[in-house]
User: Fold these one by one.
Assistant:
Number 1:
Amino acid sequence: MAYTTESIKNKNEVWMITILAHFLVILFLLPLYSFKFTSSFSLKIIQLLNLLFGKSKPIVYENMKGYSSNEEVLSGKWKLFITNYIAGFLFSISITFLYYVSFSYPQKALILSSMTQVINMFGSIMLILFIDPKIMGAIDDGGGYKEIQILTSSRILVHITLVLILVFIR
């Protein structure tokens, strides 16, 4: 994106590439709904890390399980969904619109770049304080698959929202 923005300087082309990038992200997120994909992909990553860094102790793989559907858990799922949606929106909008807005205000490109870091900071804080502890706690409890689906759904919704915003502002 940065290369296209700087070298081609065509607002329409950057707009199309941005839309395409969001659709590709959605496409790459869809396999995360498959338990078979996520578990086999996770095992491959663990095996690669063990190959690179060595094993410190034997690895015992446990199956992930979902939560029961009581009201407290459902409330927690909505909180996780909304929190992840906001954090994902902050990350994605700062990157997406930096390139697009820089065409309208080329003399403000550096300040826009700085502003994206501030926006990313708020997304990172939400991720570190609210999202990661829920995910890590669920994984420690032997769960985590439902949380992965919640995170995937909220991220897909973020990218759909951004595509709609891009279509609207065009």
Number 2:
Amino acid sequence: MYKGFSGEAIEKAALETLFSTYQDETLLWAQAFTSVIATDALLIGSLSDKQRVRNVLDKDIFPLLQEKKKEFEEEEQELDFPLYPFMAEDITSIIFRNFLNRGKALEPADLDDLQRYCLERLYAMKIHTHAMLHAGLLPEGITPSTQPVLLPIYNYTI
């Protein structure tokens, strides 16, 4: 994980054991955070190579995110330490990092190719995060003039 956060490219095999989440209730919080940190390290370690980031997103991160989102929704309540929201927030914070806290709506034309691709995939999975809101990205179909008072994020509205 340290290599990834240092910007070195690392292979998924190096983080393989950290991706698996076991159902041991006493360690559930650690498993959720360890998996999120592993995905962050894998992504950050690839940021200098846009094609590698896209491959990591497609092969490793988006499938796991989709799976965890489905589990989250099937629970009909928030788990104590749900992997899906933590993972979604971290991924979008990394991908849209240069737009965070800008205080105005962001046009998709302002995004680079990788960010637009990521946004399209997130919209296709019906995922929106607090980090995306902070970057000025509103949920698909909502504009600043039509924005409702409350936006649904995860199992609650903000």
Number 3:
Amino acid sequence: MALIDVLGYRHLLERDRKSGKLDFKDKLSNALSVLEHFDESIIKVQAISDTIIISCEEHRNLIEFFDALRKIFIAFLREGLFIRGGIAYSRHYQSKHVTYSHAIARAYELEQNSAIYPRIVVDTNIIEMFKVGAELPEILTAGILCYEQGVYFLQILSEDNWGEIYKLASDIYEKDKSQLNENAYNKHLRFQCYLLDSEYNVNNIGPFIPKIISIR
């Protein structure tokens, strides 16, 4: 189960309210249109306001699940929006009127406390399960994960898309830079580090966020 959150949602919603426009609503609709291409027999999606809940019921489909989440992340970037989220494995029950889910609760905890920046964190219990599980997809050698400071998260970048995602992230920063508080600025800075540190930055392209300067 994955829980995805759109960063800056309240600010963007308020901006629409004040302007009388529906720009943010249109961006959400455009980004979520990528969901129409998913196989509903494998991946189920529920979107409520700024929160997207995506489920995958079969272990054998985990790589397809991760790939769907990667496409969602990139779709939001193309609309000028950052997202973050958590992926967890636990009990989940859903009927017509009732949803009871340890998995959603854990995914929310990961999104709030571990993701922090624009990224989708994978619970370590999933990693451990797939390390020892027989006849399960090999996720640790598939190039679909990153690791930092004890945290596993989804690899969004590839050789083919690095340049596009760098440009999208740069455009988002340029659009937002005049109104960033410290917390929001750090999210941009951290995503830039992810881009620059990537093995796909083969041309050693530099930062788009200005460096700290000494005033003399």
